[in-house]
User: What shape does this take?
Amino acid sequence: MGNGKEKKEIGGLVFVACMFIGAGIGLLFGRADVGGAIGMGVGFLAMAFLRGKEVRRVEVSIPKTLPSIGLTLIGLLLIATGILLFVSPELLYPYLAGVAAIMLGMFLVIMGLISIKK
Assistant: This one.
């Protein structure tokens, strides 16, 4: 339970987050394979930079407006989805999947930063 384990945990989370963010950006451009490969490369580089660095606890306070902002973003995403259903339903999959992968990657990065223990 020393610092070595914490460094590995955060490095792994950063790697997975970079991979999902890269795949999401790749889906936006119709090449999830290329985006995933680039995301994995960036993730491996990030893991290398995190190796040997001392991990410190990060205190994060969630603003009271976060639920409102989250609901607003979900509402905007649903509106965009509805518009795409009318205008061009074939574009719905790559863009919606890309946005979902990017959001999942960002969630993993935030959770990784929050879960760092002393």
In short: The mean pLDDT is 76. The radius of gyration is 17 Å. Residues 3-28 form the longest helix (26 residues).
